[in-house]
Design a protein that fits this description.
single chain; 187 residues; mainly alpha; 66% helix; 4% strand
């Protein structure tokens, strides 16, 4: 990748550090999209040994790139996202990939297609982690920042995505217990 190409692309993707998500941090500020992607990638790194037959390098790549489009569109919480919103984000991703060298653009395009189809073990693992990271982050945020629908959503979000694997199911169950404790304490 040429130096100018890299700098220009990073300048656009760097907006993910400033584009915020719906969730608030424990410190009382909105979380950035980049923080979400980073923590999601760390989660994948930490469970590497739990999935010896999975291409975890690919999963980590998915974690890092999955929200690239939000550098252009901003974040829309999944419970508000429409088909039109998803299409705009897909178009933003396509535009961003055009800025990359052909081989990298093709690789990332393939990864985005794989994530969308959710058929491979890697894509399923990525999606389960993506949803669970959102729940963990919500559990860390002040309860007064939650919308009414999140009281239920944080109990069930990602359960189906984790159901295909015993480890993920156990992890999701622990997150659910944390949510129940948080709600019960009212903090």
């Amino acid at each position: 990748m040429q130096a100018r190409q890299l700098i220009d692309f990073i300048g656009i993707i760097g907006k993910l550090k400033h584009n915020t998500r719906h969730v608030w941090s424990a410190e009382g500020r909105k979380e950035s999209v980049a923080e979400h992607s980073w923590l999601l990638s760390v989660m994948a790194l930490l469970i590497f040994d739990e999935f010896p037959d999975v291409d975890m390098y690919k999963v980590i790549k998915m974690c890092l790139i999955h929200d690239f489009g939000e550098a252009i569109t901003g974040d829309i919480p999944s419970f508000y996202k429409t088909k039109e919103d998803s299409e705009k984000e897909d178009e933003a991703v396509d535009g961003l990939l055009e800025l990359l060298p052909d081989s990298l653009a093709a690789e990332f395009s393939d990864l985005f297609a794989e994530m969308a189809e959710k058929k491979t073990t890697e894509a399923k693992l990525f999606k389960a982690l993506d949803r669970m990271e959102a729940c963990i982050s919500h559990n860390e945020s002040p309860l007064d920042t939650w919308l009414e629908l999140e009281y239920k959503e944080n109990l069930v979000y990602g359960v189906e995505d984790a159901a295909h694997n015993k480890y993920l199911t156990e992890l999701r169950e622990e997150i659910r217990k944390d949510t129940e404790r948080k709600i019960a304490k009212g903090v």
